Amino acid sequence: MNQAIAINSEIMVDKQAIAEAFGKAAKSYDLHAAFQRDVGEQLLTLLPVSLEGKRVLDLGCGTGYFSKRLLERGAQVVCFDLSSEMLNRAKQRCGDQSVSYQQGDAEQLPFGDESFDFVFSSLALQWCEDLSRPLREIRRVLKPCGQAAFSTLLDGSLCELKASWAKIDSYQHVNDFISTNQVKIALAQSECQNHRLNLPTITVWYDSAFSLMRDLKGIGANHVSGRSQGLTSRKALMQVERAYQTFKNHQGLLPATYQVCLGVINR
User: Fold this and answer.
1) 162 found inside a domain
2) Which CATH number does the domain housing residue 53 bear?
3) Confidence (pTM)
4) pLDDT surpassing 50 at residue 9
5) Of 203, 190, 210, 182, nearest to 258 (Cα)?
6) Lowest mean pLDDT among 44-48, 59-63, 125-129, 205-209
7) Facing residues of 76 across strands?
8) What residue ranges in 22-85 does DSSP mark as E strands?
9) CB 187 within 8 Å of CB 229
10) How confident is the model at residue 81 (pLDDT cuts 50, 70, 90)?
11) What is the mean pLDDT of residues 151-166?
12) How many other CB atoms are found less than 10 A from the CB of residue 230?
């Protein structure tokens, strides 16, 4: 999200705000991250079962849930995240054996060219303003014949929540996500020609809109770019809850729909 550091100070503030949002959520993240684990498990199937002796970058590692899974496959893992608090949680989970920790920005990776056999990045890249930048960095740090597996959210994700808020006011309460075509353009711009994409739709069911919004806050995904981070009134939340009821199924459950991109890049 930052180009040259001097170009746009507002972008730097946004990146810091994102890091702070995830930092505040570090302790609660795992309690609210069922969807994130589902996506990560699907992404993990795209990597070899054995990673014995391979150096793997977990880009946007969060609390280290999948860093540990990579360790269990024999990998030497570098946990990388924008949030120092998330890295602390990852260290508590993974320890120091065969793993190292690095804080930083996915758009400016502090690693040399051709440093990793594999890169794993699940639901982190949507927080970058221009997807081509982290993809270019991923390609740069991959060794020849290396492979990257990434997931990101696409346009249409959380459409029910967005529609419900639109009935209440004209402010933006849900982040916008890029289209499949924009992902393909970013891959082309980053010279990742050898790739394949899978585009599943995943629906998570809730008993209330409050529960969904609690999960989003619990994982730190309640930061919305371009929106002032003021408090939302209880009255507005109750109105959203009522508006969301139009989506409930015959069991009275409310859907949260996610459009997901699972991508594999071969170097």
Assistant:
1) no
2) 3.40.50.150
3) 0.88
4) no
5) 203
6) 125-129
7) 55
8) 55-59, 76-81
9) no
10) very high
11) 95
12) 7
Round to whole Å and give the CA distance between 51 and 267: 17
Say how far apart CA 127 and CA 121 lie, in whole Å: 12
Orientation of helix 34-44 relative to helix 65-72, angle to 10°: 30
CA distance 63 to 77: 14
Residue 44, amino acid: L
For residue 216, the one-letter residue type is L
How far is the CA of 113 from the CAs of 109, 135, 144, 154, 191, in angstroms? Answer: 10, 14, 10, 29, 15
Task: For residue range 243-267, list pLDDT tens digits in order.
Answer: 999 999 999 999 999 999 999 999 9
Q: How many CB atoms lie within 10 A of CB 13?
A: 11
Does residue 260 contact residue 39 with C-beta atoms inside 8 Å? yes
Quick check: 154 and 261 in contact, CB under 8 A?
A: yes
pLDDT score, position 17: 82
One-letter amino acid at 99 equals V
Q: How many CB atoms lie within 10 A of CB 196?
A: 10
Residue 207, domain member (yes or no):
no
**Range of the structural domain that residue 183 is part of:** 9-157+178-201+260-266
Cα diameter, the chain? 56
Domains contained in the chain, number: 1
Which residues lie across from 153 on neighbouring strands?
Answer: 260
Q: What is the pLDDT of residues 101-147, one digit of tens each?
A: 999 999 999 999 999 999 999 999 988 989 999 999 999 999 999 99
Block residue for tokens 């920005």? 105
